[in-house]
Amino acid sequence: MYQFSGKLKTFSIALMIIGALGVGYSFLTAPKTIEDAKEIIANQHDAHGAAADHGATKKAAHATKDAHGKDAKADAHSGDEHAEHVLHALKNKPWAASYVAIFFFLGVTLLVMAFYAAQRVAQAGWSIVLFRVMEAISANIVPASILMFVMVMTSFGHLNHLFTWMGEGVFDPQSPNYDAIVDGKKWWLNVPGWTIRSIIYLIGWNVYRHFARKFSIAEDTANDNNKTYKKNYHASVIFLVFFMITESMMSWDWIMGLDPHWFSTLFGWYVLATLLVSALTVIAFVTIYLRSKGHLPFVNDSHIHDLAKFMFGFSVFWTYLWFAQFMLIWYADMSEETVYFIARFNDYKLPFLSMVVMNFVFPILLLINSDFKSKPWFVVIGGLVILAGHYIDVFVMVMPATVGDQWSFGIPELGALLFCIGMFIFVTFRAFSKAAPLAKGNPFLHESEHFHYYNIEHEGEENHH
Q: How far is CA 58 from each of CA 38, 43, 291, rounded to the nearest angstrom?
């Protein structure tokens, strides 16, 4: 049995404490009044070397006031509106930073579960020795779901303002905040329906994880392994159907709902691809780490090779979906669709373009060679870039709609990320220590233990000799 080391446990708890302190500090230091926002705006101008221009503008404003009092009042009103916009954005920033990290880790855990279920339904032989790794990672669905539930309920209670369609008067034609486009979608975008759907997603995913783990451990000691194996098989079939429906709906509710005017028919697939690549990378990381410590002696280079092959293949799939969505919207040039990419290209140009390179160009160049896929250190290098790139992808999905151009990567983002990483390490390795590292009762175990990938080039060399 694997023992969760004290050093790793202390490290994970330290990350959670540091992360929680960072998130807490970001909430405490968020601006509270318009005056705070105006001061921040002034500091931003000074930081960009605009102090002289600001002074000239101020003098011009005084001159305008003398000649055109009404125009000066209009400018002041416009300045107040801008300050109020900045205030709301900066108040949202700690919430948005936490939301990005929570969604990313919840999504990765969910896709690990989906990959695990797919292996069971396909009756794949190669991956059995990785089952306990995937089961351990899937334990994160419980704390990640709790955190997402907190985000859902704080949105429901209007404690945060991440979802603009939840604002006061958006559905009221008599209100100055009335939004006709959102009102046309109220059959889907309504607070009770959104909240109930969110709770159904979270409960359904957790129920499958509970039974999948229970049946898997039961296989090790069951007198009738075939009966227990079939229970897990049927549970996985049901879960995959539930997952295919709820993953798309979750993407619409939790991500596309942040931009209620915008829509994309590819978006559910796009979110699936970014989370799936990340999930496969996380499985590879945990497997490589445990194997290096001698806890997975039955995992060979061929298992690592196949994980890297999946990472490579779904990186190409992600790129296809990214390009298809971007190209069709760019070519059609419809204002209600292009606004999504305009906001990201204008205000988020660096992360927007860098994540395309990190999620496509880098994995292609690094993992296209078959021999490199079997080298753990090479897979780790590629995986680090892939995970960073897809975190940035989620960041770029969320931030423009929640904080506008007031984005940065600072204490809120780093704190939320460190907390979720610490939580992931603690929960994963604690769960791995609770069961045997090998799913001994699985009928395909022998095939997995002796698995070797087929390399056409090497086979050809052997035949030649």
A: 14, 15, 65
